[in-house]
Amino acid sequence: MSAEPAVAPLHIPSETGPLQQVVVHTPGEEMALVSPENAEELLFDDILFVEEAREEHATLVRLFQAAVGRDDAVLQVTALLHEAFDADEARTAFVDGLIERMPYRNFEAYESELKGLDADGLLRFATTGQAPFPVTALPTPNLMFTRDLSAVVGGHVLLSHAATAARAPESVIMETIYAHHPRFDEVRENVIELPDDVSFEGGDLLVVDERVVLIGQSERTSLGGVLAAARELLERTSVEHVIMVNLPKARYCMHLDTVFTFADPETCVVFPPIIEDAQDHTFVIEAVDGDTSDLRLRPRRTLREALEDVTGRTYSFVKCGGDDPVRQRREQWTDGANLFAIRPGLVVGYDRNRATYDALRAEGFHVVDAESFLDFYGDTAPSSDARIAVRLSGNELSRGRGGPRCMTMPLARTA
Ligand SMILES: NC(=[NH2+])NCCC[C@H](N)C(=O)O
């Protein structure tokens, strides 16, 4: 039990506000079930060395614990699910959710057996797809990309509606946690569900500030998903402008956060070919006279133009991969543009993206590896004005096609 004062269960005022609490998933048994036969279906391009991936992930968790300095800074999604499963209704709801979301898997044939599993048994089924009777589901190796399970905006949360069958169970996992875990009792009415026929994944949403969010219209988030999310946010939260970024529908840029993330409120790491060179792909969505049944889409040439227009601030764009177009593409593929900000100006990325780190250094960041950061700071967080880019060794993790931002779902940050 933590001695620190409790944090709000949901509170994200901005993308880089000092982190208080984050949900992660350290890869486990489910990752060891990815094989050449099912890898493509499970959205993996390669077979990860699980033990090494776990160590890399453990370092990420230690970084968060050290930098945040609270012992409840990091929550594991499987622990939350297991705790939620203490309630009978949660286990029933989870099975009902799977049946409803994945009618093609015919889980109803084993409905009573699944509902009869205890918390351990159902957790194992949820992550590995294995049960003590002849029903199987896909394992969920993408659970480590907790970002995509939901998106917290202010004190509200949008539940994801995964675009792919491989990730559909993860949406049900997160839905069960928000609906049944006691941690979310007070904020349950702030959980926003989108219509069944749209897709939306958390990696497509970035919170600029209390008034502005960005949403990618991508391989994973449909136009209907963007518009439904925009309408809900404009209606129910302090958000006044939703900037929609139309992305190529391609694996390398599956979510907006694969090509654009914030290092501090005015510094972003960007993949130039999409964010700077492409034109006419950005729209500002607003409610006409505050009426969310009447949405207006104002086209803007670039994301920069849209951002500057609605926030009145100016932004520095640091190039993922630096100036060389080949390095830009190589480093984008290994999530060079997918930085996670622990607080403004304290970011973590993958060590291998060296040209991106050179570009950050040129922007005034001190570059340190994760081990030195941990040795140096132990459990005292660095002074809040230092600009630091931490290099996490992620040779295994990066093969999952997600970076530090994808592996984190912040629940609470300070303003
Ligand atoms: N927010 C992100 N960019 N997430 C990356 C998810 C990667 C994962 N293998 C997938 O294809 O779904």
TrEMBL record:
<comment type="pathway">
    <text>Amino-acid degradation; L-arginine degradation via ADI pathway; carbamoyl phosphate from L-arginine: step 1/2.</text>
</comment>
<dbReference type="GO" id="GO:0016990">
    <property type="term" value="F:arginine deiminase activity"/>
</dbReference>
<dbReference type="GO" id="GO:0019546">
    <property type="term" value="P:L-arginine deiminase pathway"/>
</dbReference>
<dbReference type="InterPro" id="IPR003876">
    <property type="entry name" value="Arg_deiminase"/>
</dbReference>
<keyword id="KW-0378">Hydrolase</keyword>
<comment type="similarity">
    <text>Belongs to the arginine deiminase family.</text>
</comment>
<protein>
    <recommendedName>
        <fullName>arginine deiminase</fullName>
        <ecNumber>3.5.3.6</ecNumber>
    </recommendedName>
</protein>
<feature type="active site" description="Amidino-cysteine intermediate">
    <location>
        <position position="406"/>
    </location>
</feature>
<dbReference type="Pfam" id="PF02274">
    <property type="entry name" value="ADI"/>
</dbReference>
